[in-house]
Amino acid sequence: MKTGLVILLTALALGAGVETVGAIERQPLYYQDPSGKPDYSPTPKKDATGRDYVPVYEDSGETPATTPSPTPPPADRKILYYRNPMGLPDTSPVPKKDSMGMDYIPVYADEAGGAVPGTVTISPERIQTLGVRTEAVARRSMAHTVRAVGTVAADERRIGVVNPKFEGWIEKLYVNTTGQIVRRGEALLEVYSPDLLLAEKEYLVARSAAADMAHADPMARDNANAIAAAALSRLRNWDISGDQLARLQRTGTATRTLTLAAPIGGIVMDKQALEGLHFRAGDMLYRIVDLSTVWLMADVFEQDLAQIRPGQTATIAVQAYPGRLFEGRVAFIYPTVNAQTRTAKVRIEVPNPELLLKTDMYATVEIAAPVVSATVLAVPDSAVLDTGTRQTVLVDRGEGRFEPRAVKLGARAGGYAAVLEGVAEGEKVVTGANFLIDAESNLRSALQAFTAPEGKSP
Known about the structure:
Blueprint: H1 2-15, E1 19-21, E2 24-26, E3 30-32, E4 40-41, E5 54-56, E6 79-83, E7 91-92, E8 105-108, H2 109-112, E9 120-121, H3 124-130, E10 133-136, E11 138-140, E12 143-154, E13 159-162, E14 168-173, E15 181-182, E16 187-192, H4 194-212, H5 218-237, H6 242-251, E17 257-261, E18 266-271, E19 278-279, E20 286-289, E21 293-301, E22 313-318, E23 325-337, E24 343-351, E25 362-370, E26 376-380, E27 385-386, E28 391-398, E29 401-413, E30 416-421, E31 428-432, H7 434-449
Antiparallel strand pairs: 1-2, 3-4, 3-5, 6-7, 6-8, 9-29, 10-31, 11-26, 12-21, 12-25, 13-20, 14-16, 14-19, 15-18, 16-17, 18-20, 21-24, 22-23, 22-25, 23-24, 26-30, 27-28, 28-29, 29-30
Helix pairs in contact: 4-5
């Protein structure tokens, strides 16, 4: 009677998918298709022909001969689920193969947890496969680069013109080509002027009369000296050089022609002077520009003006010299905005000792505009996982463990974001493949929420 009862209980246990070995009852890990196909079930099941799925136990190692089964996990590790081998967001509570025949990868309980709640643990091989890169959190100055375009212009303070204050004729040209480089004080041309010649003779007569009245009464002597001084002052007011006045005083002889010199050193940009040309008082004969320093007139967009300050460094590139950069500094921000382009002119002073920069050259400029005055903790933009309402970084805690950490960010500039709170200086954050780690972390958290309590069968 007892024997029959044992046989009956054993049959019932097998029908329910439970195997008894001696007095120990074993629970199957999962059930496999009886024909060996890669089809599994966490509960007893029948195939299309009505055959029962075969139970697979943790220590049995029995699998159908036609299809190899995934290697059973070690007895001391609990499998939470199986994930897609290609990293796709697809999991299974039982062993499974993807469309290419690759086994799903088991995820163990000790991988999903860690010393810190929410920490993700990844094997070194997986880290290398994902291409994980990290960078230490460090203090740095936050500078935003403002980009603009502009044209090269002459420095208005380095432009000189030759326009005599008397009427005359050009007798001889010493500088007779546009573009010629001249030095300050260099002779440009000789002119003849009846008014100038008459003024010289008046001075000489007045000086001679003052000398003759050296022993006359004081009033007559003072009047003669005043007339001589006025004649000399008239010559000075006509911009006659000091050298030529000294020669006139030394020799006591008026010359028919007078030499006009360059007021500044530079390049002759405009030349109206021709030999034999008659000119009137105020006519421009030469325009000379010193291009040793030039201006770059940059068009900066309205939204970037608040970040521009005089004294900021600017880097200039021109198409004429590929690969070569010129350095300058912001000197002035003009007070008007173009209504059509919504840009404002920003004047940048650029040293040009080799005279490579020409006026009206097209140029691109980058202005380093500091966002904050002091150095701040910053992380690369690529390290931030931004959901729109929350910003997170993955902190590398070593040994393949990564902790998602919520952070509060400040200004962004130059590919970095200032961190106001959330991480400390020196901590390493993931800058490459962090979205893959984050996806796996979210996946594990979601699955852990659906994991059955300990001791209950699925």
